[in-house]
Amino acid sequence: MRITTEDIRVGFHTRQILKGISVDSGNKELVGIIGPNGSGKSTLLKCIYRVLKADSGAVYLDGDELYSMNAKSSAKKMAVVAQHNYYNFDFSVREVVLMGRAPHKKALERDNAKDYQIVEEALQRVQMEFADRSFSTLSGGEQQRVILARALAQQTPALILDEPTNHLDITHQIMLMELVKTLDVTVISAIHDLNIAAAYCDRIYILKDGVLEACGTPAEVLTPEMIKKIYKVDAEVAYDSLGKMHILFL
Questions:
Q1: Which of 10, 44, 155, 188 has the fewest C-beta atoms under 10 angstroms from its C-beta?
Q2: Burial profile 10-40: b = 16 or more Cβ within 10 angstroms, e = fewer
Q3: Alpha carbons 119 and 20: distance in angstroms, whole number
Q4: In terms of pTM, does the model score above 0.85?
């Protein structure tokens, strides 16, 4: 699955949030979107997963324009783990994950044994044991893992993540990113932590004030000079004995 945006522009009132953003994910590539708060990361992702319609520009899924397909069709192609997930009803964890099966079902079609098996496997993959617990009683980090399980149950060739490691402790941050890397799907993710981006992304796009500032591999774009330009902080880039890249803030 290849996801492409072409000259996406979004404004609210007199403020331009995105000023012509074009990104391209290769098939089964993990692409990171980074930048300071307010740079437009979440707005761009919302345009990709059709919560927000851009003022101009287009989004393509394997060459097909997003709005040429209905919502159910696009939901078979990409699943979403958003930053904030609210439910007005008291769903159990299992019921929330079962929602991921909806794009594959006809109207009023009941969940079957295969659906439940897929849900149980998804819960196991995110190490979530509380299938019968009320979703609303879980911590923020536990809820995030349930939403990832829902996305896994959707069984799509692409995954959109909006700062997926928010609310997670370091153990589950690593678990989540390691799991995402094993999925063999296309991933576009907004990422807050630069070291997470450096460790797991194949390519990174950097946004600032709604403008695309850079694109490349982590080693190409996460330089002290670029970090200073974008975040206004001093940093060093170091490599450990395994050759892994680390960003140290001074």
A1: 155
A2: beeeeebbbbebebebeeebbbbbbbeeebb
A3: 39
A4: yes
Q: In whole angstroms, what is the distance from residue 173 CA to residue 141 CA?
A: 9
Alpha helices in 6-104 (DSSP H): 41-48, 71-75, 93-98
Helix 140-154 × helix 113-125 angle, to 10°: 130
Q: Which of 156, 147, 190, 220 is nearest to 46 (CA)?
A: 190
Q: How many residues does the chain have?
A: 250
Predicted confidence band of residue 157 (pLDDT cuts 50, 70, 90): very high
pLDDT the model gives residue 60: 97
Number of other CB atoms surrounding residue 178 within 10 Å: 11
Q: If you average pLDDT over residues 212-240, what whole number do you get?
A: 97
Rounded alpha-carbon distances, angstroms, from residue 119 to 44, 58, 97, 112, 202: 29, 33, 6, 11, 29
**Two tokens at 118?**
């897929």
Phi, psi for 132 (deg, rounded to 5): -95, -5
